[in-house]
Amino acid sequence: FFEATSAIFLLAAIENTVMLLMLVMCMFFFKFNRTNTNLLLFCLTYVLLLYLLIGYTTPVMGAIVRYKAPALPFLFIALLLIFDKEKFTRRIGF
Question: What confidence tens digit (pLDDT) does each residue in 2-29 have?
C-alpha cells in the first residue's frame, strides 16, 4: 500500500492484501468437507502445478504477475471450499 504510486499499483496491492487475508482467515476458520474433496484437490493441484511451471520457466519477474492470473480463481475457490462460514459468524457475532 505504501509503495503504490498509481491506481494500478493500488489495485494490485488490494488484490494481494485480500488474498493474504483470505489465506489467514482460512487458517483460523478451517473446515474440511468430504463432499467437495475432488473439487478441492483439483483446484489445489492446478494452482500448484501452474505456479511451479511459471516459477521454473519465467525469466522475468514482472511477467509472473501476468501469468498468475489464471490460477487466482482456482485458489479462491479452494479457499472458499475450506472456509467455515458458521464458525466465522459465531466468532465475529454477525
Answer: 777 888 888 888 888 999 999 999 999 9
pLDDT band at 79 (very low <50, low <70, confident <90, very high): very high
Report the alpha-carbon distance of residue 57 to residue 53 in Å, rounded. 6
Quick one: residue 23, left, alpha or beta (phi over 0 = left, psi -120 to 50 = alpha)?
Answer: alpha
d(CA 54, CA 70): 11
